[in-house]
């Protein structure tokens, strides 16, 4: 089930964030649990992944997307992304943007599967490397 995050999810989501992301954004997640950034949770008995979206209508910026490391590669990310894109489309958003590490082939392949395309190179975007801006119309 994909649902909005609740305050009681915060500890579990923070654990996912810490374990799954190289450069997490804990301050934004802290604000997002109560909104206005949207935090969607993939809940299968407990939160197993989340998407943190900063809305700037008609554009949504996907700031963080993470699945519990031990559960990756099982289709949970696909389920969460499908639900996220549907939710944004119904909400009247026209475009989704996100950044990824330029050298993270696994992440880029995942996003390519959802028809995200490269819009720009982002030199030194991360503390230890370059990024790319990926964009998808809804």
Automatic annotation (TrEMBL):
Coiled-coil positions: none
Protein name: GNAT family N-acetyltransferase
Example GO molecular function: acyltransferase activity, transferring groups other than amino-acyl groups
Ranges annotated as spanning the membrane: none
Record domain N-acetyltransferase: where: 1-138
Keywords, in A-Z order: Acyltransferase, Transferase
Highest taxon above the source species: Archaea
Species annotation: Haloarcula terrestris
InterPro entries: Acyl_CoA_acyltransferase (IPR016181), Bact_Acetyltransf (IPR050832), GNAT_dom (IPR000182)
PROSITE patterns reported in the protein's UniProt record: GNAT
């Amino acid at each position: 089930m994909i649902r909005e995050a609740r305050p009681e999810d915060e500890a579990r989501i923070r654990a996912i964030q810490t374990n799954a992301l190289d450069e997490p954004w804990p301050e934004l997640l802290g604000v997002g649990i109560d909104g206005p950034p949207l935090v969607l949770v993939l809940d299968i008995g407990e939160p197993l992944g989340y998407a943190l979206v900063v809305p700037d209508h008609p554009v949504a910026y996907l700031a963080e997307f993470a699945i519990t490391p031990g559960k990756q590669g099982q289709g949970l990310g696909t389920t969460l992304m499908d639900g996220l894109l549907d939710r944004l489309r119904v909400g009247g958003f026209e475009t989704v943007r996100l950044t990824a590490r330029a050298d993270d082939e696994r992440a880029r392949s995942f996003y390519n599967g959802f028809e995200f395309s490269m819009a720009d190179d982002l030199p030194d975007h991360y503390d230890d490397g370059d990024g790319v801006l990926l964009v998808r119309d809804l």
